[in-house]
Amino acid sequence: MFDDDINALCHWHQILNSRRHRGFLWLSGPAGEVRARTQTLIERLALTDVVWASAASPDAFRTSVEPLAMKKARTRLGTEQGAVVFDAFNGLDPDAFGALAGTVRAGGLLILLTPDDWGTSPDADYARLADYPFEWSSLDSRYLARLVRLLRADDQVAYLAEGQPLVVPQNEEKTAVVPVPVEDADCLSPDQARAVAAITKLRRRRPLVLTADRGRGKSAALGIGAARRLMQGDPRILITAPRFSSVAPVFERLAAQLPEGVLQDQRFVWQGREVCFVAPDRLQASLDERGGDGSVLLVDEAAALPAAALHDALRAFPRVVFATTVHGYEGSGRGFALRFRDRLDRLTPQWKAMTLETPIRWADNDPLERSVTRLLALAADPPPDDDTAAELYHHRLDRDALSRDETRLEALFALLVQAHYRTSPTDLRTLLDGPGIGIETLESASVAGEGQLLAVAVTVDEGGFDERLAEQIARGERRPRGHLMAQSLALHAGVVDVATHRLRRIMRLAVLPTRQRQGLGQTLVEKVCDGARGDDMALLGASLGAEPGLMAFWQRCGLVSVRLGLHPETSTGEHPVMMIRPLNRQGDTLKHLLGDAQREQLPQLLAFELSDLSPEVVAQTLSDQAVMASVPSLKARMQLERLALGQAPLVPSRQALAWQVHQRLRACAGETIPAELSTLCGLVWQGRSLAWLARREGLTGSAQAMCWVRQQVRLLLEVEASHEHADAARGEGGG
């Protein structure tokens, strides 16, 4: 490395320091030479607090740097580094790259090391993408090629390649950053001061949703606000997050605001008042004990927590702050804000939203933030609705063309991010290079990309195993990478043939927000079915969180549930449900076999393993299941009539009532199910008590609950009688 190059980089680094900006330096060439050159640069630029991230341990360092395994990158969230060396010679993990880039402090550098032919073929991190039977080296590398194109076109990236002249961003001469005046002396930006004021003045049943990109002082605002609430007299404030390290900056700020306080065992105590960290699972298990009048809850990195847990916290705590990172690496804050908005509107319509825009850890218009944001497609917005689409055109996209059309790719990915609760940077790589992935859209023009993007579906092909491997999967002896539904249904439902046939699973489905509830989602699912049928797929599948509205949508698309997971997903807190639709005769046979397995297992599962499942989910599941005979015995009908008249108790009538509820649910498949039917599901299908029913329906005790049950039975019998009369009238008219 020549002195001229060192001097040019030193001058650039000085400019970054004076502006409180961060820089992006990219070095490429042979691994040994690039690593040695990097260590020389660290010494000559006098970089401190340097972390060297790599999938494999590099050779011994000459400089004082800290090695970090790529898989541990998330442990650095909330910390700051003077420089991060991201060694991609053994593979680039997009999630780790994004997480570590956000830890570089003002005046620091992100240094990316790559081979000189980077982007021409997959790297070793693609092993995580290689579903059976693919080898990672055989996959496409559109994602990496895209990164190379964007880096080369970015005039804010310094680039040093073997045998090529150094390219350094052409910045203006050093200019001092003039701080923006802030009235609140404890805050570093007007945004942060407004957030602290809102936390301090938090009102009952008016939760605050605080969103911010990284480096905006969100955690510090929570700490300052919590300190002021303690000074105002709050005896106890609870704070929860995915892990304690996520909120360490909150407690650091608490200690700075209240130096007389003591931090011990994840609790900060000051003058007998306290701020306590509670892990999400412990909080969920003790909502009744910890919530109630006067309680205050701060939720940090809310997008990383299950939606159901947030919903329960909203009900239990009268004063709540939900804070999340907009472009987080454990969950997209944008998807969280949009999906959670419906619950907030329903439960606490006077909730308040606030966004921190001004960066604190570095100055505005930071070049590293802009570069990383574009590389990972973090800030792209969904396409605007021009409201001119009169016709719908279906397209199956070419991923080669899509990867080279950055504007279109960003719009499509943004629509997927907005529609789903959790999206990570790695998902973009999967979209472009995952084997068996298909992308289908509805657009307003007959030529793909020339009109309005209205809806998108991302699919993956599964199954097609040979009989020997399928049998090993069903016995739990083999678990090839990928093939989520095919393997799960073979193993847990015991239907081996699911693994030998091919199915197409819809991984993600998104519709432009302004075009939702107009049938576009169902239309696109039908188009996906047509294509899958033409590709000789036996089944169309979807795996989703068991949420009644979502299940009803897929039921309207012709899918039925065939497996209900026994444990909730970590990401959503919802039990997973798998749904299928047959596409040919083989698919019909598989549906019949899977249906038989579900019918055999479901009654016992609901009574035991799934007895705590939401009754609404139970009702939605039963609505598409022929679990019981369609015609009851005369004895069952008579038992129900006696129950309705108060001439029979509940226990001997439970089986007959379960049949009646099930028949009524069958008529509701794909529709909104009345709340009363869900309550009855909890009572007769899950074995819930009359005391539970009384609490749920707001009744004073078991006696009132029993009266409520008898009233519902009378209504069910009346509905059945009206249907029988209508059927008889149609029969007479036909005669």
Automatic annotation (TrEMBL):
<keyword id="KW-0547">Nucleotide-binding</keyword>
<keyword id="KW-0694">RNA-binding</keyword>
<dbReference type="InterPro" id="IPR024914">
    <property type="entry name" value="tRNA_acetyltr_TmcA"/>
</dbReference>
<feature type="domain" description="N-acetyltransferase">
    <location>
        <begin position="437"/>
        <end position="584"/>
    </location>
</feature>
<keyword id="KW-0067">ATP-binding</keyword>
<dbReference type="InterPro" id="IPR007807">
    <property type="entry name" value="TcmA/NAT10_helicase"/>
</dbReference>
<feature type="binding site">
    <location>
        <position position="192"/>
    </location>
    <ligand>
        <name>ATP</name>
    </ligand>
</feature>
<keyword id="KW-0808">Transferase</keyword>
<feature type="binding site">
    <location>
        <position position="556"/>
    </location>
    <ligand>
        <name>acetyl-CoA</name>
    </ligand>
</feature>
<protein>
    <recommendedName>
        <fullName>tRNA(Met) cytidine acetyltransferase TmcA</fullName>
        <ecNumber>2.3.1.193</ecNumber>
    </recommendedName>
</protein>
<dbReference type="GO" id="GO:0051391">
    <property type="term" value="P:tRNA acetylation"/>
</dbReference>
<dbReference type="GO" id="GO:1990883">
    <property type="term" value="F:18S rRNA cytidine N-acetyltransferase activity"/>
</dbReference>
<keyword id="KW-0820">tRNA-binding</keyword>
<dbReference type="InterPro" id="IPR013562">
    <property type="entry name" value="TmcA/NAT10_N"/>
</dbReference>
<dbReference type="Pfam" id="PF08351">
    <property type="entry name" value="TmcA_N"/>
</dbReference>
<dbReference type="Pfam" id="PF05127">
    <property type="entry name" value="NAT10_TcmA_helicase"/>
</dbReference>
<dbReference type="InterPro" id="IPR016181">
    <property type="entry name" value="Acyl_CoA_acyltransferase"/>
</dbReference>
<dbReference type="InterPro" id="IPR000182">
    <property type="entry name" value="GNAT_dom"/>
</dbReference>
<keyword id="KW-0819">tRNA processing</keyword>
<dbReference type="InterPro" id="IPR027417">
    <property type="entry name" value="P-loop_NTPase"/>
</dbReference>
<dbReference type="GO" id="GO:1904812">
    <property type="term" value="P:rRNA acetylation involved in maturation of SSU-rRNA"/>
</dbReference>
<dbReference type="GO" id="GO:0051392">
    <property type="term" value="F:tRNA cytidine N4-acetyltransferase activity"/>
</dbReference>
<comment type="function">
    <text>Catalyzes the formation of N(4)-acetylcytidine (ac(4)C) at the wobble position of tRNA(Met), by using acetyl-CoA as an acetyl donor and ATP (or GTP).</text>
</comment>
<keyword id="KW-0963">Cytoplasm</keyword>
<dbReference type="GO" id="GO:0005737">
    <property type="term" value="C:cytoplasm"/>
</dbReference>
<dbReference type="GO" id="GO:0005524">
    <property type="term" value="F:ATP binding"/>
</dbReference>
<dbReference type="GO" id="GO:0000049">
    <property type="term" value="F:tRNA binding"/>
</dbReference>
<dbReference type="InterPro" id="IPR032672">
    <property type="entry name" value="TmcA/NAT10/Kre33"/>
</dbReference>
<dbReference type="Pfam" id="PF13718">
    <property type="entry name" value="GNAT_acetyltr_2"/>
</dbReference>
<comment type="similarity">
    <text>Belongs to the TmcA family.</text>
</comment>
<feature type="binding site">
    <location>
        <position position="361"/>
    </location>
    <ligand>
        <name>ATP</name>
    </ligand>
</feature>
<dbReference type="GO" id="GO:0002101">
    <property type="term" value="P:tRNA wobble cytosine modification"/>
</dbReference>
<keyword id="KW-0012">Acyltransferase</keyword>
